[in-house]
Amino acid sequence: xxxxxxxxxxxxxxxxxxxxxxxxxxxxxxxxxxxxxxxxxxxxxxxxxxxxxxxxxxxxxxxxxxxxxxxxxxxxxxxxxxxxxxxxxxxxxxxx
Length: 96
Description:
The protein has 96 residues and is mostly helical. The protein has one domain (24-95). The chain is 67% helix and 0% strand. Helix 2 (34-60) runs antiparallel to helix 3. The longest helix has 27 residues, at 34-60. The protein is elongated and about 70 Å long. It starts with 23 loop residues before the first helix and ends with a helix.
C-alpha cells in the first residue's frame, strides 16, 4: 500500500495579486526598465515589418489578398497597442 504524502507547510509569503493595479511610479519604472524597453523595441520592429509586408502585399505585387492584408494590419495594430496602452487602460481590462 502506498504511503500517504506528508502535508506541505503553507507558503510563508503571500502570493502577489496580479490583478491589483500597481502604483503609477512602479508602472513608470517598469516602462523604463531595460528589459521592457528591449521588448518594446522588438514590438516596434515587428509592427514595422508587418506594415512593410502590408505595403508589399497591397502595392508591390499588384494583387491584394484581403485576408492577408487584414492579418498584417491586425498584427501591426496589436504590437502597437501594447506600446500605447497605459496603466489605466490595463486596469480597466482587468475590471471586466
